[in-house]
Amino acid sequence: MFRRALAALLSAVLPATLVRGAEVDVRRDATVDAVERVMPSVVNIATLEIVEYSDPFSRMFREFWDPYYRRREADTRYSLGSGVIIDEEGYVLTNLHVVRRASKVWVKLADGREFEGRAIVGNTRRDVALLKLVTKGNEKFKAVKFAKDDDLLLGETVLALGNPFGLGGSASRGILSSKNRRPPVEGEPLDVADWLQTDAAINPGSSGGPLINLRGELIGLNVAIYREGHGIAFAIPIKQVTEALSEIFIPEVARSAWFGARIKSGPYPLTVTEVEPDSPAAMAGMQKGDVVAQVNGRTPRDFIQCTEFISDSPNREAALSVHRNGERRSLTVRMIPLTHLVRQKIGASVQELDKDELAESFGFHRREGLLISDVEQGGPAARAELQRGCLITAMDGQATADLVSAAGVLVGKRKGDRVELNVVVRRQRGAFIQTRQGSVTVRVR
């Protein structure tokens, strides 16, 4: 009895090497453990073709990758940056400026496996985008854990991870230098007032990768370095990441159906944070503060699965069970097509140019934009002098090749908010066709 007690006491106060003769690797500290836990979730993102855009991210893109691309041969893959898996079903977070120029995306995992990545609409203000790995079977992936929104300590050790150029995992260590730092971006309309600042190196190829704490939790997405200073890099904080995720992964985008409520993402209860007036969710009686317990009789494990369950509802009818003020309530949300959403927001009916014959009949190319088929008299579009036959090619700088893209911009707009539309108008003048391009600002209702 005395010997066992003595052994227990010694093991508590002395290194294991002195108690049992076992060898402990002193190099294995919290940093190493965190990197080992998260690195399987870090991916490289590449594409065969870069599609040029003129947008707020252009300068950032040029500074990071242009010198590298000028040395590349034709018909080779361009490594645009990194990302991190956030769900076992293969959802990947990255920067929007990483994938926005990608015509076709490949995602390479830390173990060497490659998958095509299907882009989901990103958030231009936050510079956050979501991809879905295209798999043939029921594969599961290692996902990173989210830190809570404001769980940040000034001066704490942070790790910037990436998979630059598909060469394998990369890690750098530093401290959290500031929790609200705005880098100079020459007036570009990015929501960067609360970006994180760190002296951990974020190099080309690591943009879009995770910034983690020593618990291995995601606290931000790596963005860029400050070229005018040394040891200054920036990351999008987890609070902005979760807010962006709640805006971009929604039934409107996943199913082309208007749901009309936002659910908080991240390591939280599935709380409704917003209900759009006159939306299907509002008509069903859903309220801000409701906590979603079940969808169509199933209990979702997280925000991603909750959105998937809602999007997969048969006949666009989602049966929800929610908690409100200690009571359990049942709601049925009858989602409607996105064309209704667009008409309600801007007062115009639009249709996709998904067939060559339709596009050619109006003198446009397939998937070039959304064709205005009708304008509501006295509505926002009419007040902006939009007419039938106009083509909407972008909203707030984001290409609108389909209704999903338009919905991704409009669903976050409140009454009175502005949306800038890029419009193309073609007019037949005898034997000549006149094409005019421009932009108009519409106040949504």
Structure write-up:
- It is globular and about 85 Å long.
- It has helices at 2-13, 16-19, 30-38, 58-69, 96-99, 238-248, 251-254, 280-283, 303-311, 338-346, 356-361, 380-383, 403-410, and strands at 42-47, 78-87, 91-94, 105-108, 114-123, 128-134, 145-146, 157-162, 170-181, 195-198, 210-212, 217-225, 233-237, 257-258, 261-263, 272-275, 291-295, 317-324, 327-334, 336-337, 348-352, 370-375, 391-395, 398-399, 418-429, 432-443.
- Helix 10 packs across helix 13 (403-410).
- The strands form 6 sheets. It has a 6-stranded antiparallel barrel with strand order 1-2-3-6-5-4. Strands 8-9-10-13-12-11 form a 6-stranded antiparallel beta barrel.
- With 445 residues, the protein is of the alpha+beta class.
- It has 4 domains: 36-143, Thrombin, subunit H, CATH 2.40.10; 146-239, Thrombin, subunit H (Beta Barrel), CATH 2.40.10; 250-334, PDZ domain (Pdz3 Domain, Roll); 338-443, Pdz3 Domain (Roll), CATH 2.30.42.
- It is built from 13 helices and 26 strands.
Which regions contain 5 or more consecutive residues with pLDDT less than 50? 72-76, 186-191
- How much is the average pLDDT? 82
Q: What is the first-to-last residue Cα distance?
A: 79 Å
Overall 3D form: globular
Radius of gyration: 25 Å
Q: Strands of the largest sheet, in order across it?
A: 1-2-3-6-5-4
CATH class of the largest domain: Mainly Beta
What is the domain total for the residues? 4
Topology, element by element:
Elements: H1 2-13, H2 16-19, H3 30-38, E1 42-47, H4 58-69, E2 78-87, E3 91-94, H5 96-99, E4 105-108, E5 114-123, E6 128-134, E7 145-146, E8 157-162, E9 170-181, E10 195-198, E11 210-212, E12 217-225, E13 233-237, H6 238-248, H7 251-254, E14 257-258, E15 261-263, E16 272-275, H8 280-283, E17 291-295, H9 303-311, E18 317-324, E19 327-334, E20 336-337, H10 338-346, E21 348-352, H11 356-361, E22 370-375, H12 380-383, E23 391-395, E24 398-399, H13 403-410, E25 418-429, E26 432-443
Parallel strand pairs: 7-12
Antiparallel strand pairs: 1-2, 1-4, 2-3, 3-6, 4-5, 5-6, 8-9, 8-11, 9-10, 10-13, 11-12, 12-13, 14-20, 15-16, 17-18, 18-19, 21-22, 22-23, 23-24, 23-25, 25-26
